[in-house]
Amino acid sequence: MAKITEETKIGEMFKKYPETKDVVKKYKLDCFGCLGIEQESVRNAAWSHGLDLERLVKDLNKAISG
Prior knowledge:
With 66 residues, the protein is mostly helical. The chain has one domain. It is 50% helix and 0% strand. It contains 4 helices and no strands. The chain has helices at 10-16, 20-26, 42-48, 53-64. The longest helix has 12 residues, at 53-64. The radius of gyration is 10 Å and the shape is globular.
């Protein structure tokens, strides 16, 4: 079962799984320093940046599984 879902908040994800920051950088998401990361979900981040949500979630979970 995936630990990171579409509804996972970006800020929560960074605190719990700091290794996901590399994936976020790869996708060129400007989450670092953004005031909204505590409320923004992975789904919203993907949508607002025109990214494939399923692929992003898959890559984030891959990063935390080793």
